[in-house]
Structures are given as C-alpha cells and as structure tokens.
Amino acid sequence: MNEISLLTSLCHPNIIHAYGFCSEPSLSLIMESSDISTMDLYQYLQHYKQEQPRENILYTTVLFFSIQISSALAYLESLHIYHRDIATRNCLISSNLNIKLQDLAMCNEIYADDYVLITLENGIQTRRPIRWCAWETICLVRSNENR
User: Fold this and answer.
1) Which of 80, 87, 112, 128 has the largest CB neighbor count within 10 A?
2) Could you give the count of Cα atoms lying within 13 Å of 127 in the half-sphere of its Cβ?
3) Residue 119 pLDDT more than 80?
C-alpha cells in the first residue's frame, strides 16, 4: 500500500500517472490511459529496426528519448526514490514520441521470463529483473518500503 500511495503522489510529464487504487474485490491500480498506438520502447525499437536500416536511426530521436528518461529519473532522484527496473520495456512511447516511465512490465506476459520471484526481509514476495539488477538490490534486498 505504501508503494501505491507513493505512485499516486508522483507528478511528472515523463512518468505515468497513477490516480489511485481500488481494493475491492482485489487490489487494482487506476492509472492514466494511453493511446491505442502506445507501445513500450523495446517494441518500438524492434519495429523500427525491421522498418529502417541501422544507419537511419536519428541521433536527435535517440537524444529526445534520453532527455525524457533522464528527466523522469532526475525527478525520482530528487524525491529519493529509485526505480528498480529501468529498461526499455518500462518506457511507454506514444505516437508523438513522448516517453512515460512506468514499472508495470512485470505484469506483461511477454516479459515474464525477465523476472524472478524473491522474498524480502519482511516476508513480502516481489518480482525483480535479477539479470539486470544492480548487485545491491539483490544482496541487500532493499526496497522503497524499507526506507
């Protein structure tokens, strides 16, 4: 519940906004909707790679993506929040190339193999992208809830 209340307090143009949650009949997060053409950055890059040769990747587009992601991460850092799964699968991209950082790829079936179920110190089980985690998030098993 602490993490959900934290999510609802975030307000940044490059972070997907969570409006609240519903606890009946099961816990559900209520968040901003996205355009039907919205895909994650991983899917976008895979699609772009098939459509365009590698030489045609626009430097300005990559820079635009980087600035948006960096802006979202700087905002989180200013609040002493760290994102445990910064990956292209957690960057939603709209048709106008605006990026919104999220942390819901673990709920997407196509990324199920990217996550491992671990148990935190307080007995809570969570899914983590072990293959890509920093060593301190694995060895110290820290989370935002433990702060």
Assistant:
1) 128
2) 13
3) no
